[in-house]
């Protein structure tokens, strides 16, 4: 008997979810506009062939989501849909070279100063973390492994060494578009521009050495060269893809 009762409860919840989903779609699509009265409880029980209890549970789901309000003696009314604010950088498309160029231009401004501040403010522990991140990038290169995460972690370690928490926070915010790799080539997933890592370790090494030495100007210069090199490579790739295909 207990299992039968439990099954009925579960069935009721499933039906309530189905009805709330259908009504939600009508609310979002504009079938019901803010201030419109939804069908009565009796009408919904007939339309969906369910009990009043199921209908009430469906309405309760919509009320909890802020989609409707119940007015005593008047019925249930649609509320204005609260749109989720669009998050910054939510539309990053790393398969588009133009999107990558936009991001690299932004990073060139942001991370150049990040490297300079890291050179001035880094702690001994943070130097160790930067060196370890640098070592892992080298290991990935030697083993032919993907460097995306290791590369990001090095840049993140530098950002953390600024002693300004907004720098690593911002880097995390744009992480989805950082170090985009071979999506731009139109090749198999995981491939990357053939020359992308040609001087990667050398460029990183110059930045790391400047931070260790506490040379803010050198750190700024080498980070700028590193990011601008990537920017120029992707611009060249964009130009090559725009050229007409040879017959």
Care to describe what's here?
The protein is mainly alpha-helical and 247 residues long. It has 2 domains: 12-78, Orthogonal Bundle (Arc Repressor Mutant, subunit A); 97-242, GntR ligand-binding domain-like (Four Helix Bundle (Hemerythrin (Met), subunit A)). The protein is 63% helix and 3% strand. The chain contains 9 helices and 2 strands. The chain has helices spanning 2-29, 41-48, 52-64, 97-121, 124-143, 148-160, 166-173, 200-213, 216-242, and strands at 68-71, 75-78. Strands 1-2 form a two-stranded antiparallel ribbon. Helix 1 (2-29) crosses helix 3 (52-64), helix 4 crosses helix 6 (148-160) and helix 4 packs parallel to helix 8. The chain is elongated and about 75 Å long.
**Broad structural category:** mainly alpha
> For the record, what CATH class of the largest domain applies?
Mainly Alpha
Strand count, sense and barrel status of the largest sheet are: 2 strands, antiparallel
What's the Cα radius of gyration?
A: 28 Å
Tell me the distance between the termini.
77 Å
- What's the domain count? 2
Task: Let me know the CATH homologous superfamily of the largest domain.
Answer: GntR ligand-binding domain-like
CATH architecture of the largest domain, please?
Answer: Up-down Bundle
How many strands in all? 2
In percent, how much strand structure appears in the residues? Answer: under 5%
């Amino acid at each position: 008997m207990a299992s039968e009762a439990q099954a009925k409860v579960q069935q009721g919840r499933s039906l309530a979810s189905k009805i709330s989903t259908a009504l939600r779609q009508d609310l979002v699509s504009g079938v019901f506009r803010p201030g419109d009265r939804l069908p009565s409880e009796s009408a919904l029980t007939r339309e969906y062939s369910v009990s009043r209890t199921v209908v009430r549970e469906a309405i309760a789901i919509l009320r909890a989501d802020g989609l409707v309000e119940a007015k005593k003696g008047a019925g249930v009314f649609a509320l204005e849909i609260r749109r989720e604010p669009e998050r910054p950088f939510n539309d990053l498309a790393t398969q588009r070279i133009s999107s990558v160029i936009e991001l690299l231009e932004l990073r060139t401004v942001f991370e150049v100063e990040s490297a300079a501040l890291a050179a001035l403010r880094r702690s001994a522990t943070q130097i160790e973390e930067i060196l370890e991140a640098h070592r892992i990038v080298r290991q990935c290169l030697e083993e032919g492994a993907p460097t995306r995460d290791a590369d990001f972690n090095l840049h993140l370690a530098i950002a953390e060494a600024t002693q300004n928490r907004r720098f690593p926070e911002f880097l995390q915010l744009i992480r989805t578009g950082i170090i985009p790799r071979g999506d731009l080539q139109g090749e198999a997933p995981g491939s990357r521009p053939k020359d992308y890592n040609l001087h990667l370790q050398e460029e990183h090494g110059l930045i790391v050495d400047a931070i260790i030495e506490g040379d803010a100007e050198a750190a700024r210069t080498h980070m700028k060269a590193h990011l601008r090199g990537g920017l120029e490579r992707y611009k060249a790739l964009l130009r090559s893809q725009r050229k007409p295909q040879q017959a």
